[in-house]
Predict the 3D structure of the following.
Amino acid sequence: MPDSEKRRFKRFNKDYTIHYVTEEHPKIKYDISKIKNISEGGILFTTSKPFKKGNIVSLKIRLPQAGDYVIFKVQVIDSVEIGKDMLYNIRAMFLNIDEGTKEMLRKISE
């Protein structure tokens, strides 16, 4: 079964900038990255380092509907190297988001 058939939520290709930090290194300042796609259930973004499956990451994203940054906690599903020792796709699912935030994510396609 193709991955697209397993997805519960439609993904939208967006070019938003995000700021991220792992809970393993909370004192390190946020790094900056780009979203590749986002949905109500999760996100795909790139980083300069791999993450371990299960890592908890805090993301700050400026969503157009919010007017300011929205902070999300995500859990890493997988980390795939796309550039030899320098670029990784991080696939992660959102943790504990409220209905208002879910609604903002649903409206991203508009």
